Amino acid sequence: MQQQNIDTNTLETKIKIQEQKFILHRRIKNFDPAKKLNVVKLCMSQLEWYKKETKNQRIGYYDSYKNMNSPWDYDVIQFHKRLTNYWEKMVEEVEMKPQKEGAAFRTRWLYAGTNYRRMVEPLAVAQYYREGGIDYVTQNRSKHFVRLEEWLNEGTKKATSDLSSTSKKNVEALLTFDSCFWAHVEEALLSCKELEVVREKEETLKKLVEFEEYVYELLRNYVVSPEIFLAQSSYMRWWNKYQAIKGTSYNSTLTSFMNDARKREQYTLGAYDFP
Length: 275
Hints:
With 275 residues, the protein is mainly alpha-helical. The chain is 73% helix and 0% strand. The protein is built from 14 helices and no strands. The relative contact order is 0.09. Mean pLDDT is 87; it is low at 2-6 and 19-28.
């Protein structure tokens, strides 16, 4: 009798799994990326407008969305959701395709997927830390963002090269290459907060120095948006806290750059040559 119950439970579990697979397959089958492309383009253009407007407010779209102090910020929620739903389904569809067909599909959508990830993942990061989250990259990063980044890394040499190249002539419009940049900023801010309680914490200080080096490398390669220099940005908040921790006598390649407003202005114009 007991064996019969076990067999029945096993059978029910298998049936449920098959039903879930069938529902997922049907949902993906009915998903036509081309038909929804115009909606996606509209949502992305709205986010581009939002990015420009928040820059004019000297805060940047990441911090504006995190703080939710403007009616615009609440409007963006729907664009964020629509784009996320679209690309989650898109990634699911590719995962279900045979290897050869899936590879061709990834190449075709590589540019749009990378642009989406760089524009929208910061919104996911903002929402996560607004709600009190910690360690976004390992605890909360959506699988579809991970896969989109893998698509870029696995892409053809030409496509990857085009998406990884920067133009100093267009730095102001740049989307930060590392779509998890703001998560690293938030973790650095948490480290600063930790040091307010325990001043000499070697491991935490080491993390901050590593973050400093990471930021300088992004700047040196022109792969981080100059929006990080906006007065109300989380990055500038981190920088001010970090300076207070390290003291005025501390010197590094990043402090040399950050303490010179002229260098930051030149970077924004694409005119600064790093040593």
